[in-house]
Amino acid sequence: MGSLLRPAALVAARRQRESGEMSAADFKREEDREVIAAIRLQEDAGIDVVTDGEQRRYAFFGHLVDSFEGFDKEGGWAIPFRDEKGEELVFKRPVVVEKLRWRRSMCGEEWTFVRAVAKRPGKVTMISAQQAAAYYDPEKSKGAYKTRDEYLADIVNISRREVEELVRLGCTYIQIDAPQYAALLDPKMRDGYRQRGSDPEELIDRCIELDNAIIHGHPGVTFAMHICRGNNQSKFYAEGDYEPISRIFEKTLFDLTRALVVSSRCGTCPGTESRCLAWSRRRNRGLKQTTS
């Protein structure tokens, strides 16, 4: 889909860089080595379209948080990841606390390196407006943005500019990662949104509009949406049937939808009567079930 586990050596190098024990140049050399390894791994496995494995990010949303000033990295709504055994791992998410200010391109470095190194077609991953919406807190964020909509207007603008830059750099496949849509099918997570001042149904409709605003008007570019129920050290944060969010599969403008589902947590897949390991849908081409 896009993200690969970050090797222990890279995780250690990131810590050294953050503590000042490693220079920026040495850290970039380590990053480059691991990105090349991730690309070769995908190519050797026969994957048609490869990514950099998101090796340059501290988390899958790191391209947003690290590219703009204004986020508190761990000050947001903490969510528990769990497994079938009942074990939990609490993950602290970012929260916007100041007006967003540009530092650097979110994905330009990632894409140009993949473009230069990969032997197969490449793609870039970005997070959806719906995912970014989770980083707004009515109390903690109101000093920067009075409303969630005001904040999301900024997210749409900066995301659309990033898409335009990627297109200029020759990228023809952009995947929008939207795991937060899965949060809106989980009853407990829906209650969490209500407690923080957001109606889940209104949020679904609003974020469909926002994601469409980001991706429309780019002929020749394939836009894919990726949905999952979260994955942190083999733990998940959401479960439930797709029915509460099923309208996103018809109303969004994505060319391709890919979802990760795991039998007992997912209910049935939209358009099918069965549980499955993975499925994909191309716009106007129906649904395809896979087991990979």
Please tell me about this protein's structure.
- It is built from eleven helices and ten strands.
- It is of the alpha/beta class and 292 residues long.
- The chain has two domains: 1-47; 57-290, Alpha-Beta Barrel (TIM Barrel).
- The strands form three sheets. It has a six-stranded mixed β-sheet with strand order 5-6-7-8-9-10.
- Strand 9 (278-282) and strand 10 form a beta hairpin.
- Helix 1 (8-19) runs antiparallel to helix 2 and helix 6 runs parallel beside helix 9 (200-215).
- The radius of gyration is 19 Å and the shape is globular.
- The model is unreliable at 271-279 and 284-292 (pLDDT under 50).
Task: Please describe the structure with a list of short key phrases separated by commas or semicolons.
single chain; 292 residues; alpha/beta; TIM Barrel; 2 domains; six-stranded mixed sheet; 11 helices; 38% helix
Strand content: 15-25%
CATH topology of the largest domain: TIM Barrel
Strand order of the largest sheet: 5-6-7-8-9-10
Helix run count: 11
User: Looking at the chains present, what oligomeric state does this protein adopt?
Assistant: single chain
Distance between the termini: 10 Å
Largest sheet: 6 strands, mixed
